[in-house]
Amino acid sequence: MRIALASDAWAPQTNGVVTTLKATADTLAEEGHDVRVISPQGLRSIACPSYPEIRLAVLPGAHVARQLRKFRPHAIHVATEGPIGLAVRSFCGARRLPFTSSYHTRYPEYLRARWPIPLAASYAWLRRFHGAAARTFVSSASLESELAARGFQHLHRWRRGVDLTRFRNLAAHPELAGLPRPIVACVGRLAVEKNLPAFLSLDVPGTKVMIGDGPERVALARRYPKALFTGFRFGDELASLLAGADVLAFPSLTDTFGLVMIEALACGVPVAAFPVPGPVDVIEQGVTGVLHADLAIAITSALRLDRGVCTSRAAGFSWAAATAQFLEGLAPISQAARAPVAARRSSAMIAPVVAHGQSEAGDV
């Protein structure tokens, strides 16, 4: 199956959306599918306001049309609501091609945390964007219920996974040696929407370790000098830092899932979080973590949990199972519909594609 995956979020960005899309594309390729990723890579772009790591493509419509005409996908999935996503949505709408979308990020809440933009206005725009899709993929039951209550329709569950070959019981990272225990780690982008002061201001014993980076790092490090700020860490280094922790604190109130929670569980680390969407869909209360309105109570209680049970429960989150749900939700494009798409190709030279591991010349 030829699957076009359109996303404004892609490498070299570091976030849960990119991790999810890369893992899904890799798993699809391993299963024999041909995946074409259309992203801002290689295009003229500008920095996203307040989130400079994200580059927004400038007028990508012609590029998007060339890639889709050349690739002739059997299914199209729009992962984000930025310029790339809008261009693909427009392409499909003009040709009456079905496509699916996914809801990864609570942009209304993120925008309101920065500017006085009413939630109702942001959600109205998102309803319109996703309303054109055959189905909109969501990561959890609580998010599905919340969006349905806000008027979103045709929702499809697409769970997340974890790389169990990387995130596992490992020796603690040397950087943690000698730190007062317990070590409470927190992983993610250091930004206002992550609610990090709710964790960093806690009066709990041990050491707080912040793994990640972002626009709030300088201010947070100055305000909370007793915490260890490591910056971004990746791969095995991230896994060993997680495995060396005693608890993962997850203070966010706005994440749609929280991949780092299952990464921590795979390393045998219980989770402390607030009882909000995301954590309530991942954590077994009193088994793999503790959810409490007082995060300090959640942390101290989570220290008593069995790390072995956390590891075993994480095995239920595989990318193979998550990708099967992704495939089930796709809206196939009929052969009859694909033919006129290819026939409309421009006679101009096709530019190199932003694809998953290959150039345009290598595709069928």
CATH topology (level 3) name of the largest domain: Rossmann fold
Number of domains: 2
Computed structural class: alpha/beta
Helix-strand sequence: EHEEEHEHEHHEHEEHEHEHEHEHEHHHH
Low-confidence stretches: 345-364
Mean pLDDT across residues? 91
| Residue share in helix | 25-40%
Question: Sheet bearing the most strands, described?
Answer: 6 strands, parallel
The number of E-state strands comes to 14
Account of the protein in words:
This protein has a six-stranded parallel β-sheet with strand order 2-1-5-6-7-8, with helices on both faces. A six-stranded parallel β-sheet has the order 11-10-9-12-13-14, sandwiched between helices. Helix 10 (259-266) crosses helix 13 (307-314). The protein folds into two domains: 2-161 and 319-362, Glycogen Phosphorylase B (Rossmann fold), CATH 3.40.50.2000; 174-314, Rossmann fold (3-Layer(aba) Sandwich). Residues 345-364 have low confidence and may be disordered. It has 364 residues and is an alpha/beta fold. It has 15 helices and 14 strands. The termini are close together.
